[in-house]
Amino acid sequence: MLAHGFHGNGRDALQPSLRLVEEISHRVVNEYAEAIATLSMAAGRAEGPAQDALRAAADRLHDHADAHRSLLPPAGATTVSLTDHIGAICSAHTRANLADRNIRLILKADDVCVPADYGWRIGLIIAELIRNASRHRAKNTPGLIEVRIAGAGDHILCLVSDSGRSEPGSAPGRELRLISSLAAELGGVVRWSSTQRGKFAIAQFSAQDMRAARATATVSS
Question: What rounded mean pLDDT belongs to the chain?
Fold first, then answer.
């Protein structure tokens, strides 16, 4: 693995709107915790199949809470390793959304270090690409989703490929707009393609474009 560094203002560059998102996300995680505690207490009072069902529901909610928690902005950090951050996202989403559908997820990543708010946005993009790949897959079809993070000089390439076939008539729209909007905040671009081997999404960013996009956002806020 090669080490690549992107320098910026880190969490000092976080805008008030981003802090609001962070606060809302923490509240959602707390609500998950309350729901899990309620189910766990109910399971303690139940017996037989009802107890098993309640415990399974609590475990499933715990997995979804972990997946949501993995998307929070890195706390107390000025920079973040994309290998570690994206790795945590992939692990959490595998447990919450992919494992029981027999979908494997593989991550291959260079050791790329970026400012924390950049890494947070890239993580959101990767998570949405993973969800998009799994959401529109034909039902009951096993497969493979591969995530690749590569750093070369001042550029980052993020590839998400899906070996599965889409559900007939599926037409993702809102998700793609969200992904494109997040990439644009970093001065990046996302391209999609489809072949006989599956679907591919490639996001590309440069340190210069990231700094320019963040500077523009700061001036306009």
Answer: 81
CA–chain centroid gap for 181, Å, is 15
Asked whether the beta carbons of 217 and 185 are under 8 A apart, the reply is: yes
In-domain check, residue 180? yes
Q: In this prediction, what percent of the chain has a pLDDT beyond 90?
A: 38
Q: For residues 112 and 119, what is the distance between their CA atoms, to the nearest angstrom? A: 10
The token duo for 210 is 């990231």
Residue 25 lies in a domain: no
The reply to whether 193 falls in a domain is yes
pTM of the model: 0.79
Q: How many domains does the chain have?
A: 1
Q: What CA–CA distance (Å, rounded) separates 14 from 39?
A: 36
118 vs 13: CA distance, rounded Å: 10
Decide if 36 is inside a domain.
no
pLDDT tens track for 34-90? 999 999 999 999 999 999 999 999 999 999 999 988 988 777 778 889 999 999 999
**Alpha helices, DSSP H, located in 47-170:** 48-69, 82-93, 116-135
* Domain of residue 167, residue span: 3-11+78-220
The CA-CA-CA angle for residues 200, 204, 207, to 5°, reads 165
8 A C-beta contact, residue 42 and residue 148:
no
CATH for 152: 3.30.565.10
Question: The tokens 């671009």 sit on which residue?
Answer: 189
